[in-house]
């Protein structure tokens, strides 16, 4: 599919445009967080203030502005997502390419390794490893990335198996082109579509994993994240208090939902644009 055809099909997908707009919004929010608002720290004067023109999303138990916390939480979410995606890509794509292209012992070993990782109870293992290696945000992102590559490797392998039998790959072999060139130049370009779709899913699930770890107390307490905000609200009893300061936990929860939905919509739109016949 040509770039023009892809762009034209993508623009017709309204939900995809919503997802793309949301992704761009979060990226800009995370990148320019220091220019938008100051880092929330210390104590504020308005304790548990409800949403108003002064504090659009209210304040927490320390009097800190929750909107500022959410903006800086977006920065953390983007950071975690990109670290996880980078690791998943660096491990999963080469593993999938080799597994799908090379027959015999090397491919079988990698394929078995992928299957083993796919059967592991991911969340409990992430919790255990995060507890062992420490709760810095970089460690959490690396742990999430290390458990995100098997699904990407499986997608890459399946796509590679389909492309390997095509005539242009046979021609490249006959011309004596090196295997690494065939894998990373000829095959990877053809199968980049499903890889991109899977990467958007990893971007979404990595934030869910980070939020879950932070809520369990395994996140970085020195860094604001959406999971950390909800954790602090829970520890303070804000979620079950009467009257309930809903703004403390509702806004970060909605941010997580919106972030995940946007990346899923974007991934579905990319998939539909790359495979227009699959929608019929």
TrEMBL record:
The keyword Transmembrane applies. Its main location: membrane. This is ABC transporter permease. It comes from the Bacteria. The chain crosses the membrane at residues 15-36, 48-67, 79-102, 122-147, 187-208, 246-267. It is found in: Cell membrane. Keywords: Cell membrane, Membrane, Transmembrane, Transmembrane helix, Transport. Gene3D superfamilies: MetI-like. Residues 74-267 form the ABC transmembrane type-1 domain. SUPFAM superfamilies: MetI-like. PROSITE patterns: ABC_TM1 (PS50928). It comes from candidate division WOR-3 bacterium. One of its GO terms (biological process) is transmembrane transport. GO terms for cellular component: plasma membrane.
